[in-house]
Structure formats: C-alpha cells, structure tokens
Amino acid sequence: MVVTDLEGRIELWSRHAEELFGWAEEEVLGRDISEILVPVDQHASSAAIVAQVRGGQDWTGEFTVRRKDGEAIPIWVADRPVINRQGEVIGVIGVSEDLVEHQRVSRVAEELSERLQLALEAGGLGTFQWDMVHDVVSWDDRVHSLFGVRPETFDGTYEAYLALLHPEDREASSATVQDAVATGAPYTLDHRVVWPDGSVHWIHGAGHITLGPDGEATGAIGVVADVTEERRNREQLQKLTLDALEAADRERVSSERLEFLGRVNDALAAATDQPSLMRNVVAAAVPRLGDWCSIFVLPPGGSQIPEVEVAHPDPAMVAYARELMERFPYDPDAPFGAPRVIRTGEPELITDVTALDPDAAEVGDEAQEVLERLQLRSVITVPLIKRSRVLGALQLVMSRAGRQYGAEDLALAQAVGVRIASSLQNQRLSDEQRHIAKTLQASLLPRALPKVPDLDIAVRYWARGEGVDVGGDFYDIFEVRDGLWAFVLGDVCGSGPQAAATAGLLRHTIATSAWHGDPPEQVLHSLNSAMRNRDAGPFCTVLYGTVEATGAGPRLTVVCGGHPLPVLVGSDGIADQFGTPGTLIGPLARIDVTATSRLLQPGDTLVAYTDGATDLPPPHGLNETEVTKLVGSVVSSDSTAEQVADGMHRELHRIRPIDERNDDIALLVLRATAPD
C-alpha cells in the first residue's frame, strides 16, 4: 500500500511495499512516486492514471513498475482518491499485488479444485445447482445416484426434486429452502428420499443462496450426502451441539458480566455523595443483572435502620416499592433478606422463590399477596463489607419466568458488593475530611460581624474544588476601640493544616498588634516579624485596614502587604483600585508598606478579594483592569453589601465554576451608608 499527496510525493509506504518494490520506507518518503517506480516508457500512461484519480475516480488495472534492483515486474493496481470531509481530493492511496504471485495462486486454485473433486468423491458427496430464475436444477452424477434416479429420467426442475422426497418431508424441506431464499442465509436440511424400488434413504444437504448483481436471490448451490447410516448417531450429535450452544451462552453471559462490572465502576466513579452513589448503582444493575435492584446502607452513626434505594424498569413499580417500605417498615431482626445478611455478613441465594414454603418462611397472608404481585422468582442478597465491617447490603431480584440466579451470579454480586463497599467507605472518609476541613476553616473566620456605624458589611468564603482541604485564605473584622474597627483579608501560601496554623497565627498577631494601638503600617511590620520568628511558612499576602467613625462619615485606611489591591467604587459609579502595593509578608526581613486613607461617602463601596478570584489559567484569568471593570459592573446594579457579594459570586461562577477552581476565595465588601 502506498499513499501520496496530490503532487505525487510519497507519504506512506507499507512494509509489504518495501518487500514488493525493494525500497525501504525511509528511502522514499517525500520523493515523487514516478521517480521511484515508473519506467520512462510508462510515464504518459502513469500521468493519465494520476489525472483520473485526482479527478475523484478509481482506477484499477495491470501496470509494469521498476523495482529498486532494476527488475521490471507486472503488478495489479487499484488506485483510489483520498477525500476529506469537505469532499476535496487530498491524495491518492494505491494497493498493488504481484501478478506473478496471482498466477501462482491461480495454479494453486486449480490444484485445490482437483483436490476438492477428489474429496467429494472420497466423501460420497454430490453437488447441485439451482437456477431459480429459469427453474433449472443441475445435479452431478453422484446426486442422481443418491436420489436413486438416472439422469435421463430426471427433468431438472424444482418440482421434480420435491416429488422425489418423502411425502412427510416435502413441506418442511420446501419451507427451509424458501426461508433461505428470503433471507439469503445458508441452510441445511435432512429429508428422506423414496427410491423407485420403494426404499427410503436419508439425505443431508447444505446449500448457499446465490445472489444476482441487484442483491436478489437467483438460486442455490450446495452439496448432498447419504446419511442413512449416521441417523443412529443423531442423538449424540444433538447432544454435542447443545453442549456447544451452552458453552457459547456461558461465554456471552461472562462477557455481559464483565461489561456490567465496567458499568458499576463508571457508576461509582460518577457519584459525588452517598445518595448519588446508591442511585447510580441500582440504575446500573437494572435490567442487565435483575428486574429489581435494592441497596441498603447503614448510617455512620450506628443506627440499624438503613437508607434504601430501589430501581425497576417500570417507574410505577418503584413507586409501589416505596409504598411497601412504608407499609412494612424495615425489621432488623427479620429472619431472611437484607436484615439477615446485614446481621450475619453472609450472602443469601434463593434460586426459586416460588418453591419456598410460605409457612416455613414465616410469611403472612398480606406479605404473600405482595410477593405474588411482585412476581419474585429468584433473589440474591450480598453484604457490603469493608474491613470486616458490614456497611449494608445489595439485593438483586429476578421476576422473569425461566431465569434463575445461580452460583456464578452470586459470585458476581459479591464482587460488585466489594466494590460498592469500598466506594462507600471512601465516600464517607471524603465526607468526614470535608466536614473536618469546614470545621477547621470556620474556626479561622469570625463567628459574627460587628456592627459598624454608617457601614454595610458582607463577607464570603468559597472553598476550592470539593472543599476537602483547609485553605490558607482568611478574613477578620473586629473592634479595636470605641469608634475604630479593623478588617483583614489574607492568603497564606499553600493549603492544609500548615496553612491553617499559619492563618491562625496571622489573625492572632494582627489583632494583638491592633489592640496595642499600632498604626496599620506597624501592624504589617509586626506580622512580618512574627512569620519570620515563628518560621510560619514561605510567605503570605495581607490586606489590612481600619474604619474610623467621624462626624463626616467613616474614614477608610488600607495598607497592603503583597495582596491584590481592593477595588473602590465611588458613589458616582467610577471604579478604581484603592491603596498602594506593598511587599509580601514573610520572605524579607524588612518590608515596604504604605497606608492610604479616604473619607467614605454614602454609596462608596470597597470590594476586597483573595487571588483565587482572579488567578486562573487562560482564558479564565482576570487582570487588574478586568477585575476592576467587573466589580464596577456588579456594584452599579446592586444596592447592599450582601447583594454585591452575591453578584460577585454569580460573575465569578460564570467565568469558572467555583467547584472547578484550584484555590479558595475570600471576599469582603464594605459599603458606606447614609448616617443613621
């Protein structure tokens, strides 16, 4: 196989092309195919062929090429255009075969034909051909002898063939042939033939339907043999056939089970919490592994009443099942089913529910009526065990007649139960870790916001991703003294317990320094010294500010230590960054920070944030100009600090969902109000 572009340059040269033409692929890639293969006297015909294929038409035929060693060899070529999705010809693909090899194969075919004839004779087989269009049946001599007639006495029609069959076999044999003609499928049949002397012989035939150019059936060809002696072995043959079919069915079932395990794995991987895990599992099991699937999961607190999820192909039956759960509350001490399996940790297989003795199973009349309506046939219940602890049970029910669970189904259900239990345990560990992270994170944030005269305040904290790690972002607002309040927004490098510990140190240090009466710049200097003396981490960014009540309104003072500058939107709607950039806290012994102050007017709004809001991979990131414009837009459409905070969440989530981000976000909104 050889592929070229429209200029004839070789782009692909298969291994067999190397063997046929003698050139290695690395020797010909990028070279003109005419230069490599086409003799000088064949250039004109080669150009015509190339033009035809470039025009979108196939070309096949015989062609002479020159091998690398100079030998000219005849080949059979099939060239076809390579067409892209726009319908444009972008290249040529050619497949070549050595005609010398074809000649050898032809001789081999003749030899095989002779051997076939010998085999037919040795096996006592005769061949036939039926021309359905002209109603001509052609038999070889062997077939005539098998049917007990001489060639001159058989008129060669389909009706004449049927007339030779035993009267009891004609209809069935004709139906088999006609069905094969209708479907185009090969067929086999066994029928009896009555010879002129009255003797009956069994004939086995195998036929193949022939098709015309239009795909319509034109007749049949096949072979026949006398199998009278073999009829006595028919029962054994049937048994072998049934064994083979059963083996094939087992293989199919095994394949379906592997596929089901894959579906369960996908269902478990897609679950985000325990309820979705339970729903996904039962949905994956029905109807592939059962008509009903129920999962029972015990709560982590030690309750014996599990949470239950049920699936069935018919939603009405699911509703009925939920109704039954209310009518028949879960009994942890029940002697069978999920309660027994959860108590004992042992699986339960009921191959045939209908064979159970209702009295022995202690089933009441009402429950027996329910069982009959549900048409339960076979039930498997397996425990969900992780580290010797039973987390619940999985139950599969078959209600179709003729389908029963067996040992292999039980083994599959147990394998699925192990995977479900592992996922449940992992889900619970994740939930526990998430709870710990939220609890620890909450301990780093103020429990309540102080009331500041003439100031509307809102704060937000959004954990990154699934929120299973403690973040390094924090905020705080506290009263320094009468008429003076401080606020802080910080971001510690890293995450986890180390970042949380550092954040706690920073909050304590900032508050202590502020309560000692230190000005804003000195607060950050003290914070920098504390980080370096306590070896609290590589660095952090901090925005510290104060709000002082004055007769003319609140006075805002901000000092920045490596933190993104907040955005101040004036009552006139103009948005701009507020403050002076300063040095990161922690890496250097000396920092350079500058305080910036402003008397706030009613409607002035300050929005401070950590870099999780803006530092994202392209195209989601926001530069200083973009975030200023975004804040201005949100503030202009909202009238309270809470509304501004909600608006910021809405816009940030639109740019990139919060749960898809890899950093936490802390947000602080201060909005000046009219004097009270």
Can you describe what's shown?
By secondary structure, this protein is of the alpha+beta class. It folds into four domains: 2-103, PAS domain (Beta-Lactamase, 2-Layer Sandwich), CATH 3.30.450; 124-227, Beta-Lactamase (2-Layer Sandwich), CATH 3.30.450; 251-433, Beta-Lactamase, CATH 3.30.450; 444-672, Phosphatase 2c, domain 1 (4-Layer Sandwich), CATH 3.60.40.10. The chain is built from 18 helices and 25 strands. The chain has a five-stranded antiparallel β-sheet. Strand 14 and strand 15 (389-398) form a beta hairpin. Helix 9 (234-270) runs antiparallel to helix 10, helix 9 runs parallel beside helix 14 (407-443) and helix 17 (624-637) crosses helix 18 (641-655). The chain is flat. The mean pLDDT is 84.
Fourth-tier CATH superfamily name of the largest domain = PPM-type phosphatase domain
Q: Which stretches of 5+ consecutive residues score pLDDT under 50? A: none
The CATH architecture of the largest domain is 4-Layer Sandwich
Give the overall form: flat
> Kindly, what is the distance between the CA atoms of the first and last residues, rounded to a whole number of angstroms?
88 Å
Strand-residue proportion? 25-35%
Mean of pLDDT: 84
CATH secondary-structure class of the largest domain: Alpha Beta
- Write down the Rg: 43 Å
Summarize the structure.
The chain is of the alpha+beta class. It has 4 domains: 2-103, Beta-Lactamase (2-Layer Sandwich); 124-227, Beta-Lactamase (2-Layer Sandwich); 251-433, 2-Layer Sandwich (Beta-Lactamase); 444-672, Phosphatase 2c, domain 1 (4-Layer Sandwich), CATH 3.60.40. A hairpin with a 5-residue loop joins strand 21 (567-569) and strand 22 (575-577).
